[in-house]
Specification:
By secondary structure, the protein is an alpha/beta fold. It folds into two domains: 204 residues, D-Maltodextrin-Binding Protein, domain 2, CATH 3.40.190; 97 residues, D-Maltodextrin-Binding Protein, domain 2. The N terminus is likely disordered.
Length: 341
């Protein structure tokens, strides 16, 4: 009987929280380097990741990297960006060439289980569609039987198109490219009847790359689910937690009404939840293994989720993409964060 109670006590001790997180090899390497290495998409995607006129990476996915940097270092700009093609990205992460992918990678079962990688959340809920020249007179994807379609190789888009056309008993001619710039150029030069990819990419391509955006239309059909989010290597649970909770913190901040404009004033709030989120009441930073001001640093330097969405792809951007599924759950969307407590 005494042995049984001793074993139970040992088991309880093993599952009791220690009050702080244990660092892993990936997190140790990032901290020793003093810089986060973030994989983005080669060629960029307007609104999501693109190099501006000053040679600086900007966009929604870039802001996720900046937010992780703010959580880790207290500074959002300690990031090196590495452009990767669709075929290179997962191999580069596996090989340790980057610490984190934030490049519109779709979360699928096989990617999550077979590659030794972990998807940590959904930054943007998307779905695949088609863009065509208006002069074709096509109103629906079901009118694309026999069409040639420009698409990126190594993407989930290839399989989605094949499934869609097979299901609808249609045929198509794939025109495959590894480089997004080549794919876009081929489409706008008339080598393909249609261009396919995540709808976010289509809207971005239409605004940023079309000779005349009004000459092209995105068709209404959405043929797949494309949950896009950050990816890390499997095995360093603390680093994965920091990336995951960075995104949750941005969503939680928006829900709580904490923005980059009012975060200093919010430090004076009497709301217990806001005090925990901003580190006025300590404990959450220690549990995650970062500074207690981690959420404050994220929101102050990068913004909450709504701010990041609006300035990059939403109402404050050229893309004007509606929040839709990416609205908060309190506003009919899918963005929902577990509580910081």
């Amino acid at each position: 009987m005494k042995k049984m109670f001793a074993a139970m006590a040992l088991g309880a001790a093993l599952i009791l929280p220690t009050g702080h997180a244990m660092a892993g090899k990936d997190l140790d390497a990032v901290r020793a380097r003093g810089q986060l290495v973030c994989g983005v998409a080669v060629g960029g995607i307007a609104g999501f990741m693109v190099v501006d006129n000053q040679g600086k990476w900007t966009g929604m996915n870039v802001d996720i990297c900046r937010a992780v940097s703010a959580a880790l270092f207290g500074e959002s700009e300690k990031v090196k960006y590495v452009p990767l093609s669709g075929q290179q990205r997962f191999t580069a992460l596996q090989a340790g060439e980057v610490d984190l992918l934030s490049n519109n990678s779709t979360w699928t079962l096989t990617r999550d289980t077979a590659l030794g990688l972990d998807f940590v959340g959904v930054t943007y809920y998307d779905g695949q569609g088609f863009m065509v020249p208006k002069k074709l007179g096509v109103k629906s994807a079901k009118e694309l039987n026999g069409a040639s379609i420009c698409v990126l190789t190594g993407s989930t888009s290839e399989l989605n198109i094949a499934d869609y056309f097979r299901t609808n008993k249609m045929s198509f001619k794939p025109v495959l490219f590894e480089d997004p710039d080549q794919s876009r150029s081929a489409f706008f030069n008339g080598r393909c009847d249609a261009y396919s990819g995540d709808q976010a990419r289509l809207y971005a391509t239409r605004i940023a790359n079309a000779p005349n955006p009004d000459d092209y239309v995105v068709l209404p059909e959405v043929i797949s689910k494309e949950p896009l989010g950050p990816v890390v290597r499997h095995g360093d649970n603390q680093f994965e937690d920091i990336v995951r909770w960075t995104q949750f913190a941005m969503i939680e901040a928006e829900e709580a009404g904490i923005s980059s404009k009012n975060v200093d004033e919010m430090l004076k709030s009497d709301n217990p939840a806001i005090k925990r989120i901003l580190g006025v009441t300590p404990g959450m930073g220690k549990a995650l293994g970062v500074d207690e001001k981690w959420v404050y640093n994220i929101v102050k330097q990068v913004g909450n989720y709504g701010e990041v969405f609006d300035r990059n792809v939403g109402t404050g951007s050229l893309l004007k993409i509606p929040r839709g599924q990416n609205a908060l759950w309190t506003q009919g969307g899918l963005q929902y964060a577990p509580p910081i407590r």
